[in-house]
């Protein structure tokens, strides 16, 4: 029987029973993978949605966009709620909303209901930073590194493993079945978290910063809509520029307000510390590097050979891409040991350098199927290392009472990187200039240019990782790494 004391002292009135720490880690990782799976569940039938729903492509695109948008907005908010009211409680609420959204989408016969369901599914992404924060509160430091690495990696693992599941379901069943599968995964995760995961005893208290929530939501909505839909609307269109500039203006006012209240939604003074700031910037770059490959490789694998692609089916392409997710998962225990021995900063630098190396190979050779398989696995290894390092770096300097909000903000930064990659790389491929039977398709030069963007992002991440300063004495305010185990 193992017990861990809450950080900051051995107060027996707040003792937490930890039943089999490995099982707690596995359950939180499963919940994280289920939540991230929702990000890719519709990708296999994205091009068919206008026909299936009888709506224009511009309308059906919201079924993809709304999930990313809601996830980005709700993740830091749910992190703050977890700090205030209990991380397990909020995680269960998010999983409940995920299940509800999956059922709504499964029963939908119109695009409006599908968009509502997809938005509710997006709320589930907050489970990942909350899971990391729960581990920080209840695990011994010897187990913490590998646990954080596994849960953090689920941001990439869920999508990679979920893609072949979605592809199989859509090839053999009605598309609504995907959402019943999603509902089953979410319900199982909810039951397991309620049963296995101990309640965190750490509470920040205080009142929710409602004005901060509204300001962050409005500002992020403007920026993320402009970034995610810029290719469709035109980057110079009044709608895109208005949303982008308006969103940035709102975020500036929001930041000014957050610095002037006692209990802000996001403590920007902590966020501005060198370690947190550079880690969050590196997170944007690594998110971009990750998603650049996830945009390029599926199109390259599925494009017909006569158009310069590799001519695989959706299922074949999904199976080629899936091992990258397994590599991320397999690196979790390795990353935990490396982080414990060398620290998180070298781990992040090494992970981003490995990703950069994989892109160098991808740019230098004429890609065949086995090249894509190997390169994508190497990307997965680098992502596994980098995603393990980021929460550890954040938690070196963030006070225990702000764990959930800080991890939520870091997850938001990764999402900003992936959203930017989808827009930039998607735009590069869309403007590729080749044609197949009169239909525009990406050219070889477009694929190579897109991969160069991924390489640039990985190099930027490496430089930022090397620039992360050491935490100064007194800066950590007792970060909540557990002090001991009975």
UniProtKB/TrEMBL annotation:
Gene3D superfamilies: MFS general substrate transporter like domains. Pfam families: MFS_1 (PF07690), MFS_2 (PF13347). PROSITE patterns: MFS. It is found in: Cell membrane. It comes from the Bacteria. Keywords: Membrane, Transmembrane, Transmembrane helix, Transport. It is a multi-pass membrane protein. InterPro entries: MFS, MFS_dom, MFS_trans_sf. The keyword Transport applies. Coiled coil: none annotated. The chain crosses the membrane at residues 21-39, 59-78, 90-116, 146-169, 175-196, 208-228, 240-257, 277-297, 317-335, 347-365, 371-394, 446-468. Residues 24-472 form the Major facilitator superfamily (MFS) profile domain. This is MFS transporter. It comes from Promicromonospora vindobonensis.
């Amino acid at each position: 029987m193992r017990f861990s004391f809450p950080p900051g002292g051995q107060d027996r009135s707040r003792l937490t029973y930890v039943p089999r720490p490995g099982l707690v880690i596995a359950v939180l990782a499963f919940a994280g993978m289920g939540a991230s799976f929702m990000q890719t569940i519709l990708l296999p039938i994205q091009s068919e949605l206008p026909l299936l729903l009888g709506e224009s492509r511009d309308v059906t695109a919201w079924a993809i966009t709304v999930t990313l948008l809601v996830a980005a907005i709700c993740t830091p908010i749910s992190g703050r709620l977890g700090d205030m009211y209990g991380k397990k409680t909020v995680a269960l609420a998010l999983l409940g909303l995920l299940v509800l959204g999956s059922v709504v989408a499964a029963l939908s016969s119109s695009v409006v209901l599908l968009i509502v369901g997809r938005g509710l599914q997006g709320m589930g992404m907050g489970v990942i930073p909350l899971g990391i924060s729960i581990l920080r509160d209840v695990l011994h430091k010897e187990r913490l590194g590998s646990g954080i690495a596994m849960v953090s990696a689920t941001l990439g693992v869920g999508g990679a493993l979920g893609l072949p599941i979605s592809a199989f379901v859509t090839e053999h069943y009605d598309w609504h079945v995907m959402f019943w599968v999603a509902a089953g995964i979410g319900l199982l995760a909810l039951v397991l978290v309620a049963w296995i995961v101990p309640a965190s005893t750490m509470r920040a208290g205080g009142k929710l910063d409602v004005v901060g929530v509204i300001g962050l939501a409005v500002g992020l909505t403007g920026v993320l809509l402009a970034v995610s839909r810029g290719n469709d609307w035109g980057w110079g269109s009044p709608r895109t520029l208005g949303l982008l500039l308006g969103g940035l203006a709102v975020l500036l006012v929001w930041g000014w307000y957050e610095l002037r209240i006692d209990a802000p939604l996001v403590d920007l003074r902590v966020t501005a510390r060198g370690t947190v700031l550079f880690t969050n910037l590196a997170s944007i770059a690594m998110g971009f590097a990750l998603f650049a490959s996830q945009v390029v490789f599926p199109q390259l694998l599925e494009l017909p050979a006569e158009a310069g692609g590799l001519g695989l089916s959706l299922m074949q392409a999904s199976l080629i891409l899936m091992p990258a997710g397994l590599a991320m998962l397999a690196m979790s225990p390795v990353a935990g040991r490396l982080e414990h021995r060398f620290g998180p900063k070298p781990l992040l630098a090494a992970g981003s350098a490995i990703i950069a190396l994989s892109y160098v190979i991808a740019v230098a050779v004429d890609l065949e199927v086995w090249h894509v398989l190997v390169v994508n696995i190497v990307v997965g290894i680098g992502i596994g290392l980098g995603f393990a390092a980021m929460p550890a770096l954040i938690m070196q300097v963030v006070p225990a009472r702000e764990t959930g909000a800080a991890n939520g903000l870091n997850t938001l930064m990764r999402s900003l990187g992936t959203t930017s990659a989808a827009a930039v790389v998607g735009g590069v491929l869309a403007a590729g200039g080749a044609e197949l039977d009169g239909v525009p398709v990406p050219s070889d030069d477009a694929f190579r240019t897109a991969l160069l963007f991924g390489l640039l992002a990985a190099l930027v991440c490496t430089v930022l990782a090397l620039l992360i300063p050491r935490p100064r004495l007194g800066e950590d305010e007792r970060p909540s790494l557990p002090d001991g185990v009975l």
